[in-house]
Amino acid sequence: MTSASPRAYRPMTIGALAAHMAGALADEPRLHRLVLEFITEYGDASDEERPRLLNDAPMETGDRRWDAFLGALVEHLAFHGDLPIPTWTGAPARFLDRWWFLSDTPAGRAEAMVTAPASFMRRGVFIERRDLERA
Does residue 72 contact residue 123 with C-beta atoms inside 8 Å? Predict the structure, then answer.
């Protein structure tokens, strides 16, 4: 009798993240958890594996704000990891016409205006830098 070998764990790609997010748009806390899970898995991935996680062009989520967020996140991670920035991040669907603040509080918005990474600000997405830190 041959036993099946266990599947090797593979971290979530940005494409898989977008697919999970598309099914959770009504659940903001879940969206945030999914993003943090991706950031954690990316941080734990080997240098050889990281480009694969970012290059998997994601589908649109159904919410333009989150589509812009994903473009900004990948540009941010690629830039800080000395990786080529995937071309899909420059698509018009990855930019907003109106600013979006992930925080609803005045203090959170002010903090986001000061600390949001450049890749997010240029897309009109304002997030506090600390919200991108791994859990």
Answer: yes
CA–CA distance, 101 with 124 (Å, rounded to integer): 8
Give the position of tokens 């930019």. Answer: 95
Question: Tens of pLDDT along 3-38?
Answer: 555 677 789 999 999 999 999 999 999 999 999 999
pLDDT (tens digit per residue) in 32-60:
999 999 999 999 999 999 999 999 899 99
Whether the Cβ atoms of residue 124 and residue 94 lie closer than 8 Å to each other:
no
pTM of the entire predicted model: 0.91
CA angle 52, 55, 56 (to 5 degrees): 90
Distance CA 47, CA 82 (A): 10
Strand segments (E) across 2-131: 100-101, 125-126
Q: Which two tokens stand for residue 19?
A: 């697919």
Separation in Å, CA 119 to CA 27, 42, 70, 104, 132: 25, 18, 10, 21, 13
> Distance (Å, rounded) from C-alpha 93 to C-alpha 68?
7
CA angle in degrees (0–180, nearest 5) for 66-23-40: 60
